[in-house]
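The instructor's notes for this session suggest beginning with a concrete chain rather than abstract definitions. Hand out the sequence below and ask the class to guess, before any prediction is shown, which regions might be ordered.
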Amino acid sequence: MTYFKTLTIIIFFSVSFFACNQNDKSNELIPKKTFINLLIDLHKVDALLNNMGLMDNKLTNEDSLSYYNKIFQDYDITRAQFYYTFDYYTHNMSDFLELQKIVIDSLNNEFILLDSLAKIGLRQQDLWTLKREWSLPKDGVTNSIPFKFATKNPGNYTLTADIKSYPDDLSKELEMKIGAYYSDASEDVNAVKIDVKNGTWKQYSVKVSVNPNKQLSYIEVELLSHSNNTTYMHVQVKGVMLTFEELDNALDSVATN
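After discussion, reveal the predicted structure:
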């Protein structure tokens, strides 16, 4: 199954690049749970590249590995750290086999679900390209965390994140907002209020469905939309996702039958 090619690729890369990075490698071992999640995400990228046909091209090792750089950034680790940890596990085979089993079992369960969704014609992808975690005021005293991108693809766009707002947060009219903006200057905007300010995590989600009868120009979101009267924010955000779902003809026909 192509989903598990990544492990072979990583082994090959780690042998070649680890040798080249001996002088630069970090000696920090990535925590086991984090490393497992990292490997799972690397497998997912590999699956995506295969589905897109990119891995059929004869890419160099460096070019191929560059597709994984975003994941390294999301986990706030360096390549040297990754190679050091991978090397550690390959020299502790019992731990490595246990880790590999957890990764493969997790992927089996997840891809069974994804395959079942594909059969009914649901295509889904995450479009968020900024940081997955934010902490205010560290990332800006009144940062609304805006994100905007041009697209003409109709469908459903869903913004999801886990948010923790503290009691001393002074933001006013705090919301998570997403909008579809059309070429005729009209718009569809939805928002959900961030209504808990007791220092506990809560997941929020808000969706906009693009009007198929209009020409979409761009999608714009604000993770922490707030009033101009806001003077100080004390909020943490993690697990940010902007998911795009497009229903194809197969799913449309099911819906109309």
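Then share the key points. Helices lie at 5-20, 32-52, 61-66, 69-74, 79-90, 93-119, 249-256. The first strand starts at residue 122 and ends at 126.
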